[in-house]
Design goal:
Elements (H helix, E strand, L loop, with lengths): L2 H8 L9 H6 L4 H8 L2 H9 L10 E6 L2 E6 L2 E2 L1 H10 L7 E6 L5 E5 H17 L7 E4 L5 H13 L2 E4 L6 H11 L3 E5 L2 E3 L2 E3 L1 H9 L7 E5 L19 E3 H7 L9 E2 L3 E7 L7 E6 L1 H14 L7 E4 L6 H13 L3 E5 L10 H9 L3 E4 L1 H10 L2 H4 L8 E5 L5 H11 L6 E4 L33 E4 L5 E2 L2 E7 L14 H9 L6 E9 L5 E6 L3 E4 L2 E4 H9 L4 E11 L3 E10 L7 H14 L8 E4 L13 H8 L13 H15 L1
Helix pairs in contact: 5-6, 5-7, 5-12, 6-7, 6-10, 8-9, 11-12, 14-16, 20-21
The structure holds adenosine-5'-monophosphate-propyl ester.
The site of adenosine-5'-monophosphate-propyl ester has 22 residues, from helix 12, strand 20, strand 24 and strand 25.
Length: 652
Amino acid sequence: MTEHQLDTLLSEQRRFPPPEGFARRAKATTALLQDAARGHQEFWAEEARALDWMRPWDRVLEWTPPHAQWFVGGKLNASVNCLDRHLAGPLRNKAALIWEGEPGDRRVLTYWDLAREVRRAANALKQLGVRKGDRVAIYLPMVPEAVIAMLACARIGAVHSVIFGGFSAESVRDRVNDAQAKIIITADGGYRRGQVLPLKRLADEAMAHTPSVEHCIVVRRRPGGEGDESFAGMTEGRDHWWHRLLDAASAVCEPEEMDAEDLLFILYTSGTTGKPKGIVHTTGGYLTQVATTTKYVFDLGPEDVFWCTADIGWVTGHSYVVYGPLANGATVLIYEGAPDWPERDRFWSLVERYGVTVLYTAPTAIRAFMKWGTAHPARHDLSTLRLLGSVGEPINPEAWIWYHRHIGGERCPIVDTWWQTETGGIMITPLPGITTTKPGSATHVFPGIVAELVDNTGRVLQAGGGFLTLAQPWPGMLRTIYGDDQRYQDTYWSRFPGRYFAGDGAKLDEEGYWWILGRVDDVLNVAGHRIGTMEVESALVEHPAVAEAAVVGRAHDLKGQAMAAFVTLKDGYDASPSLKDDLKAHVSHKIGAIARPDDIFFSADLPKTRSGKIMRRLLKDIAEGRALGDTTTLADPGVVNRLKDLYEAQEA
Ligand code: PRX
């Protein structure tokens, strides 16, 4: 965020009280806040009672900092809570999933259908030798099978590790190896902007170096599409067609009794080193938090059609496409492809066709819609919408107001929700029937959450700017980093002892509203996607031409942040536009297209401190065209000026 953007944000004076009609019927009431005020453990215990437990817990919380256990001794199964418990009543024949593929193909699965598919998939996994605690990697496009696969794992106590379909073969390989996954579930392709994502081919490349994988299950997304270059065929004995396995499997499958603290999933996310972290989430606390936040933040119930546009490869897809909405018996819309395919009104045609009532998307998407113009939403009847959500990055007031006006018809409250892969569920957010919103502010902590702003020394601040920390454990919190508990302790709990440090800067205004300013560590947020600068730097230095690389984020109108890479070349290599393209393609190949740098700048040197650390802050100043900050600790201050001149010259 630039200083100018920050000033505009904080001078935002507009207020939006909840619409009266909404407030009258909202699930979250002021009584909820009073309950929460009585104690955060009691609040969460009360909410957890709304789930189906096979055995009640003995203690709500066991807190041995920084390790928490919630609902100790309790037993439950996540798939039972998302499916079986809805089958006895009127939800049985209601749509659980409405799916539309990018080419326009459609499927609807009722709760009954979904439960049957999940049980059959669970039996298929069992038949391939998957047992409780085994890890299953899921590398799929946004198809119903992605949801079925996750819930099938949950049913038998296998731990899923979903890998976003846009990641490269190497990223898949690293994640599969870190989790020692036994199975990979993938597809013979997926559609994005009319192109086929060659998932099985990439999975094949990955599987050449993943000794733990015994079987690969392949969803047939493109009947008749076999044999082209995106699909390399099936390996006898290792690969199995999903539909064949399921055809042969029984639809009777007793749920595994899971301890509240048994692992539900691992989800990899970027940090400040080159190696992604496997964030570990368990069953009871996670499910409690996502079910509770879904109910109150999205005001969600069985009569709703909820569309969270996130891919299931991200935590938003886990918590608010799958577990939260299904636990609440809602109807979930899933769309496979791009928002501008075949036309820029695709989202609005989906909202109209399926009568979406609650829409949850990212500021980057909203800014793209703004750029494409109001004619696209205006062509469609969006009157079914009653609530809008935003997630993943700070939303600028201009985008907020546009969303409110052109999508929400000035009648829908907007919930700007702050949370992270690590928090499992929403932490700071308006409650739609209660909170008066201010465009650009995530407003207040969710009931039962204790967030505090601290200064550099860890002193708690009542107002002003500082670091966002969580002062009490919460049910959906990550339990550790898979296989590396020391990293868990160092990353989150060492900067401010006794507190979880989120990595975000924030501001509290005089009225106690939170304004999230963005990451203060070496993590970028490009178009709402979290990318570690070190990951991209390591990918760049693996290119034969690159001697050294430094990656920084720079403010970007549409994407929030864009990625600028400063690269020094090895002797014998010359800077050229084609080498730039080559380096960008190299990073896409190594990590995935989301990590492709926007700008590459060649430079003879990189600015370093006397101890040899690259000064990213200075590079950011250069990339954003600002006057240079303090350079007195630099080994060679001239480097920065030379770089800045170079940057400007190359920009032209
Ligand atoms: O910087 C914050 C930003 O996204 C980061 C978490 O990224 P990830 O784990 O990928 O999860 C994204 C979806 C929950 C945070 O550290 N962030 C998330 N939501 C917001 C946000 N920044 C500002 N406002 C938000 N509402």
